[in-house]
Amino acid sequence: MAVWTTEPGGVSIHGLDIAYVRDNVHGALHPVAYAYIMHFVGLVEVTLLLGVTPGVRGPRARFVAGSVAVLAAAVLVLMAVNTLTEISPYADPSRALLDRLAAAGLIALALATLCAAVALMRRGFAFYDSFVIAFLVGMGILHMVSMSLVAAVLDPRMSLTVWAWTPALCHLLAAGCAAALAAGTAAVQREAGQPLPA
């Protein structure tokens, strides 16, 4: 079980979801950090789905990878819908606006993922691989920024553990592996002098 924070008194935040950390901050949590931690689990799911798809070239592999990308887009849309439906009519106007903006961002990301999937099916390998790599790098940077913002307002008695920073490292390592795989696949096909599968 993941341990996100530690406290001298022994209290800690466990589990795969770090959203509960918002109850242990002093002052207002930065909007970027708030939006990220509230959607952390879903974003990790999308990252895992997309992270296994770069470098595909064959017809069957493209179909599978494209289907996975569509599934990732569907997860993003469901996250956006869930965010909108959970906005209370009595919620603070600024918080409600932030939730709506987060939902709009998720929908935009879902549309971009669908476009990438279509590009892959039309043999736009470089575009698709670049999209996935950029997504992984972006998630890594977003995680680091969000954790830094959380750490800045976290209860002084508490501190973030190494685990809290681990997802960023995993995202960046996955991006590096995806880039190496995509480059290696393209290089092999160029050296072989064979046309790409239809």
Provide a brief overview of the structure.
The chain has helices at 31-38, 40-51, 59-85, 93-121, 125-153, 166-192, and strands at residues 3-6, 13-14, 159-160.
Mean pLDDT: 87
Q: Please give the largest β-sheet.
A: 3 strands, antiparallel
* Principal-axis shape: globular
Count of separate DSSP helical elements: 6
Q: Assign the structural class, choosing from mainly alpha, mainly beta, alpha/beta, alpha+beta, or little secondary structure.
A: mainly alpha
Spans where pLDDT lies below 50 across 5 or more residues: none
Let me know the number of strands.
3
In N-to-C order, the SSE pattern is EEHHHHHEH
Query: What share of the residues does DSSP label as strand, in percent?
Result: under 5%
Q: Can you give the helix content as a percent range?
A: 55-70%
Strand order of the largest sheet: 2-1-3
User: What's the gyration radius in Å?
Assistant: 19 Å
Cα distance, first to last residue?
A: 45 Å
